[in-house]
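Researcher: I'd like a structural prediction for the single chain below. Treat it as a standalone chain; there are no partners to consider.
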Amino acid sequence: MSTKSMNSAVEDVKVFLQGAEIKRRMILDAAEGKNVAVFEGLPHDIRPESVNASVEKGGTLISADFEADSFREPFISKEIKELEEKLEKIKDEIRTEKNKLALYRSEEEFLDSNRKIGGKEGLTVKDLKDLEKYHNGRKEEISSFRTETEKKLEGLEKEKERMLKEMGAFPTNVVRYAGKINVEFFSESKGKAEITVSYYVNNAWWRPFHEIRIKEIGAPVALSMKGRILQNTGEDWKNVNVRLSTGNPMLGNEQPTLYPWYIDLFVPQRARAAKNVQYDQVEAMPCVCEEYDSNAMVARMASPAQMMAETTESHTATEFALPAPLNIPSSNKPIKVEILKHVLEAELYYYCVSKLDTDAFLIAEIKGWESLNLLAGEVSIFQGNEYVGKTHLDPAKAEESMEISLGRDRAIIVTREKGNNMTTKGMIGKNKKVLREWVITVKNTRNKNVKMKLIDQIPVSTNSDLTVETTEASGADINKETGILTWSLDIPSGGSVKKVLRYEVAYPKNGTVYLE
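Model: Treating it as a single chain, here is the predicted structure.
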C-alpha cells in the first residue's frame, strides 16, 4: 500500500453563522492497488463526524478518517512569524540608536570636563582659541546627531507599538497541534489521482449588517447588505471561494416529539400522627414554553436588484456565493465584504411622537420587500456622506410594507407647548373637572414639501367614575381604545402647521388623578 503526504490547498469555504465547512483538494501520483493520501497540517479541532472525502479522478474511495497528530511540532502561522522577525529587527535598530545616544552623551561629558585647561603651561592664546573652536563645533555636531537619533528612535518606538498592536489582532493560541485526514482509495493502475476532502470547524462565523444611503428627500434609497467574517481556525484561507450560509449544522437535526401532558388535582393530605399542624395551600403554577424558530432571522426571497453575491436557497438556509476569491487569515480581526445591493423606490415621510420626543424621524416605507434577500441586523444610516445613526432591520416583523428609520432631521422643527386652558374648572356636583390643552407646531425649513405623521395621545379611563372628553383634536384620527391621535400632515417648504389638543377629565372630588 502506497502512502503519500502531499501539499493541499483550501479551495472552497462555506461560513455558517457559527462554524465553517472547509474543502481541500490534492493531486498525487497513485500506485496500482491500495493508496493512502494524507492531508496534513489541518486544524486540530475538526469535527470527525463531518469529514467527507471523494476520489474525483484515478481511483475508488475506500475510507476517510481524521486523526489528531499529537506527535508533530506545533506550528505558528506565517503572518505571526513574519511579524516576529520584523519586530526583532526593529528591536535591534532601537538598541543601536540607544547606544549611539549613550556615546553622544559620554562625549559631551568628556568635552565639558576637559574644557577648563586655561591654567596649563605650554598653551598659547592661539592654542586656546583653537581648542575652544573645536569644542564648540563638536558640541554642535553632537547636538545635531542627538536630535536626529532621537527622532529616529521615536519613529522606531511607534513602529514597534504598531506591530505589537497588529500581533494582538491574532489569537493568543495561534500555536496549535495539527490534525490530518487519511484517505484510503483503490487505483486500478498507476496515474494521477485527484482527491477532495471537506470538514467542519467551530472557530469561524459571519454576521450580516446593512448600510442605507439617501442623497436627498425624494431620491431613491441605496440599501446594501454586508457581512463580517472572522475565522480563528489555525489555518489561513488564501485566495479561496467563499459562501456565506444562514444555516447552523451544529443545532441538531432531530425533530422534537410532543407527548401527552397529563394533569390532575393535588389535594394535600394531613399526617394522621401529627396534631395541630397547619398546611399552606399549594397552587399549580402554569408553565410557559417558548418556541424557537431557527429560520426567524431569514427572509428567503429572490432579488431582481444588483447582486454582489449569487444567492441560492435550500429548504433550511440561504447561501450567498461571493463573486471573487478572498484572503482571510486566522486571526481575531473580522473582514468586511459586500453581499448585495438594492436601489429602492421608497416613500419618505416624517414621524414624530410629540409627547415623548419632539424630534422628527425620517422614515422610508418600502413596499415589495418580499423580492429582497434581507437578513436581520444592524443598519448604519447615511444622508449624503454624513453618518446619522443606527437602527435595526428585522424582515421577519415586516408586513405589507417595511418601515426603516433613517434618523432624526433637525430641519423639521416640532414644538409642544402648554395652551392657555391648563386649569381646574372646579366642582360640578360631586365631580371635579380638569382641563388640559397642548399646542403642537411643526415647521418645515427644508426647500421641499414634506409629509409627516404626527402622533400624540389623550388619557384613557379604566374607571366608570372617571371620564375623559376630547373637546379639540384639530382633525386628528382618534383611536378610542388606546387614546392615540394621528395627524397626517402635508407641510409646504418654509411653511408651518399648528394643531391644538384639548380634553377635560372629570372625577369624584375626593379622588386624585395625575395628568401631565
